[in-house]
Amino acid sequence: MKYALYLPLFILLFALGCDDDDVLSTQEVDFPISFRAEFGGTPLAIQSADYAYPTGADLKIQLFQYYVSDLELLPAGGGDPVQLSDIELIRWMSATEAATTTRTFQAPIGDYVGLRFGVGVSPDLNAQDPSNFAADFVLNENEFWGPSTRYVFAKIEANADLENDGTFDTPLTYHLGSDALYTTVTFNRTFTLDGTQDPDFTIVADVLKALADDTDSFDIANPDQQRIHGGNQAIATDLWNRLADQFSLETR
Amino acid sequence: MISGLAGAFLLLGTLACDGGEVALTAKREHLEAFADMLVPADNPATLEGVALGRDLFFDPLLSADSTISCGTCHRPELAFSDGLPLSRGIGGRLGRRNTPGLANVGYLHQHLFWDGRAVGLEAQALHPIAEPHEMGGDWATVLGKLRRHPDYWPRFRSAFGLGSPDQLEASHVGKALAQFQRTLVSSDSKYDRVQRGEAVFSTAEALGEAIFFDFADDPEGPYAGLPTGECAHCHTPPHFTNQRFFNNGLDAAAHLEDFGDPGRGGITGSKAELGLFRAPGLRNVALTAPYMHDGRMATLEEVVAHYNGGGEYAENKSANVFPLGLDSVQATALVAFLQTLTDSSFVTQSIMLLR
Question: I need a surface site. Which of A22, A82, A143, A191 has the fewest CB within 10 A?
Fold first, then answer.
C-alpha cells in the first residue's frame, strides 16, 4: 500500500513525458528500404539468365552496381531532410544473390512527403581517397579509378550474343562516373513513419531501361559502344542519363 | 568488432628495436596509401601472439609427418610463394592449386584461397593442416602435440590467457598464424615510391602503367589511342586485387560443367560460378611465378600474352577479358610495370624471419 503514494508522481512524470515534443521528435524506428534489380521488368539474375535485347541480341549480365549517396527523407511541412545514409553501394555480382537486397536505416517517426538520393558518389565524398575510410567501407570496394578520375559511380557488365549463335562472345563493359554526372533522384510520396504501418519501399533499377527504351536502344553492336570507361563522355553521359532516369519507387 | 592495426605495428616496432630479436614486420612506414588493416576484436595483435605465429608458421610440427610447415610453400625469398606450379604437401603429394604469395594478405579481409572458401585469415589458417595434400594431419593430433610441447604451450597460455592445456583449440593456432601474417606488409616497391614522388618510372614502366590503368580512356590525354590493358578492374590498387572472382579465360568451355577445376562454383554450388577464381594480389608478382590458379604460366610474359589474346571462350568469361591489341613493345612495357611491384625490402626483411 505504501507504494500507492507514489502513483500520482508516476502518472505526472508519464504525462510530462508525453507532452514533451522534443522527446517525441527524436524517437526513431527501423526503416528498411529494398533495392531490386530487374531486366525488362523481371528480377535480375546474374550470369544465369539469357535476356533478349531489343536489337535481337541476347545478354548475360555479369555485374550491375551503383552508388547511392545522401539517401534522405523529406519531412512534411518542410525543414531539413532526414539523412538515412551518406553512401551505399548497391551491387549484384553473383549468381547466388537475390535480385532484391534490403538495407535497414534509422528514421525519426513523423510525416514525410518524399524520398531522394543521389545516384553516384556525392562530390564531397568523391573528393576523398579510399585510404581515408575503413577498409570495409563501401568506398573501399575497389571502385576507385584514380587520383584524377575518382570513383566509378555505376557499372554494367555483360556478355552479348549478337549473332544468336548461342555464344556470348561480345563483352560489354560500362563504367560510369564523374562529379558532372552525379544526379539526384526524388520520389514524391506522402507517408508516415510510426513503427506500426510503415510503408515498404523498394527502389527498382532496370538494366534494360538503362540501355534501351521503346524508341532508342543503345547500340551494343557498335564496337565504340561496347566499352565505356569514363573517358568517352559523350556516350557515357547518354548512358548515364538513361541509367539515372529509370529508377522507380515501388510502395506497398 | 574490428579495429585498426596501427597500434600493433608500433608494438612490433618496439619489439624489433628493444629485444634485439629479428624484425617481425616488414616496413611499417609508408602505410598512408592503405586503409587501416582490419583486425578482429577477438584477435588483436600482441608481441607474444605474433612471435608465436611466426614460429608456428615455420615449424613442420604442424604437419602429419613433421616435414611440412606453412613456410615450406610460403617461402619468404619468393614473397611467400613456392616457385612451383602446384603446391607440394607431405610425402610429395601434389596439391590442387598454385601457392599464392602473402604480401599484404592481412589487408584482404574478404574471401581467401583461390576459391574463396575461407573468409578472414583466422579461418584460412585452419585449412591446410587437415588437407590431405598439404599438411595431411588432423587437428586432434596437432593440438595434442602443442598441448604437450614445452615451449609452445606456455606461449599459447601467455598469448591468449589460457588456463590449462585443454583450453588450447584450433582457433588459437589460427589466431596466432593470422597475427603473424598481418605483419607481412609490402609498401615500398618502386610503384609505391613513384606514387610518393620519391622515384620516377622508366619510359617502359610508364608506358606499362598507362596500359595497366587504361590511361587511354582519356581521349584528351597523352595516351589517347594506346591499347588498354583492362588490368586494374580486377587488380585494383593499392593491393592490386579487388578480392572478387572471375573466369579470366584460361580454358575453353562450351558448357560450364566442362571446367576441370570448379573454382568458386565448387564452393557456392552455382553452375554460373564454375571456373571462377579469385583475382590474386599482384604485389611482388615478379617473384611469385608460376602464375594462375594452376601455375600453368611460367612467366609474366606468358601472362601478358594470354590477356593480350583475349583468353578462351566460356559464357561466364569476364567481360573485361578480350583481345587487347598490344604490340610487342607494349607487352614488354606492361611486364616492366608489373616488375615495379617488387618490394625488395619486403623480401629482405622476410628472409630475416628465418634467421
Answer: A22
